[in-house]
Amino acid sequence: MSTPEFRNVVRLNKQPSIRSTVTRALRAAVISGELQPGRVYSAPSLGEQFGVSATPIREAMLDLAREGLVVTIPNRGFQITEVSERDLREVTELRLMLEPPAVERATPLIPPSALPELRRKAADIVAGAQSGDLVEYLAADSDFHLALLHYAGNARLVELVAGLRSQTRLFGLAGLHEQGRLVASAHEHDLMLDAIEAGDAAGARDLVHRHIEHVLTDWSGEAPAPDAADESVGT
């Protein structure tokens, strides 16, 4: 896999903190596989790619180390941790237990005034898919899903799901983009919002459930199960 190129990372985040911006983009790069499992990266080399100094890179990597995404290698840098197939299945199982019912609960609580911003977040996902910028795609995708869960009214749930999402590895994203399928996947978020806008809580729940299931097939880079091969893909 070639060395990842982080294009205009700072624009990915509306937050004022450079550290949070870099952390967000690094996290997405790890999940997408653009930062390779087992490989050691130095803060100065990543800083050159980000266009920032090594300091925010080190700070961001320490944040990711606390999440278990990287480990510190003294005098060398940071090594990306690996996630086994079993780990991925267990994480996905937990997400299926938590996210679909939470979105069902949140649906009647999402005010109409919130929909334009949610639509904008969904559009950001599509933009990332169209450009093939996997870091931007995943960062926008995380923003969207966590924003939906926020309306369920349980801050601990949002924090837990954010942690679970960080533990996934979605190495199939690049292949989906090359096949022209990533944009179709991105538009699944619009379908979720259509169901939410229509007040169809059960429909929104089912869409999220199917979306997450594909972490184990197309998104993870594993071969899809025979009964899922013709379904849509999601994260």
UniProtKB/TrEMBL annotation:
CDD domains attached to this UniProt entry: WHTH_GntR
Superkingdom in the source lineage: Bacteria
PROSITE patterns: HTH_GNTR (PS50949)
SUPFAM superfamilies per the UniProt record, alphabetical: GntR ligand-binding domain-like, Winged helix' DNA-binding domain
InterPro entries: GntR_C, TF_FadR/GntR_C, Tscrpt_reg_HTH_GntR, WH-like_DNA-bd_sf, WH_DNA-bd_sf
Keywords: DNA-binding, Transcription, Transcription regulation
Chain ranges of the HTH gntR-type domain: 16-83
Name the record gives this protein: GntR family transcriptional regulator
Lineage: Bacteria, Bacillati, Actinomycetota, Actinomycetes, Micrococcales
